């Protein structure tokens, strides 16, 4: 029998509610310690009151992840002592979670994968500790923000699988309005536990914390797997510890020995009723399809893997593509143009996530013109930057005299480059401005008739090829 990498995840998601989990302090950006009250400060004698909005979002998440929702899940106290938790316990769940036994499907490349969700539980966030020169400061604005903890079974065997899982799950949670999903800001946190195990016997797990990006999660997993393998191969033993990922040095650093459930002395929270789901109030139309379902549709239509991945991850891009296709755009070409030139132009103009400009109808028209051979791909690409500010492709083609002039434009660009070998070379070696001289020649050769934007783009494409 062979040892194999075994990875499970714990994901903490800050739910996008207006107020905190057990008090009515507001959530959101504010000066330190201005969004707090006796309850979220953990003062004696206060009573927690559950946030119905958070329970609704949790219900939605449980449905999204295909989990069985517990009819009466119980809040429990998880006791531990740490400066960010002055009351000495966190309200969490242990013996009876909010939901359990779900499954998440996603694509790694064109391959379908499935990971089991062990449980989803509701808890409150702790205060935030900031280590500064003068010492450590506590900010209680974060204390009591509703958190959803999603725990997977140890079904992952490689980091890229974990990356695809996290990217698709984050996209879905954000699309559904459950969280803003900002990993760098801590509203989505992921802690992998990693071991080398035999198929029938699990190895010693190491948990990794402090991961600020999905890329960081992937790197930390690769590092830790290699480290454990080396230790085991050398006859050493893996210790059950918690490590922190150090982005700068690119390695995991020992933090402390791992606690076990009995260390936390869980017992039912006497001040709270069972945390019941809000199934009745969930509207069917609120449910958003997942990146997996989108990917299935794209791949079934023959869209290439890379474009399919990009469109399936972004609900807005996917819906835009769907609309172009509904309006007669070829599915493959539409995917290529949306994920390629259009996203490029939107990004350059700072317009991501995209609105609805160009109108999907205009893109479908543009693609039709290319397909019929009325204009070249080069000309079409040149029109995209104007189209994202609302210009109509047909008008531009007519006014610019671009129709039928496909080869003409490319020929014009080539002629202009031929006349300006020095400027062309300067541009190719990084002097962006040198392209102007080539464009000037091209415009002169066309007697001012060419569309400058399209010509510029044609020259650029030829020089960058
Ligand atoms: Zn409060």
| Percent in helix | 25-40%
**Radius of gyration, CA atoms, in whole angstroms:** 28 Å
Spatially, the strands of the biggest sheet line up as: 2-5-6-9-1-10-11-12-13
What does the main sheet amount to?
9 strands, mixed
Ligands: zinc ion
Distance between the termini: 51 Å
Would you report the number of β strands? 14
Gross geometry: elongated
Q: Tell me the structural class.
A: alpha+beta
Number of domains: 3
**Average pLDDT number:** 89
Count helical runs: 15
Poorly predicted runs are none
Order of helices and strands: EHHEEEEEEEEHEEHEEEHHHHHHHHHHH
Strand content: 15-25%
Short summary of the structure?
This protein is of the alpha+beta class and about 475 residues long. It is built from 15 helices and 14 strands. About 40% of the residues lie in helices and about 20% in strands.
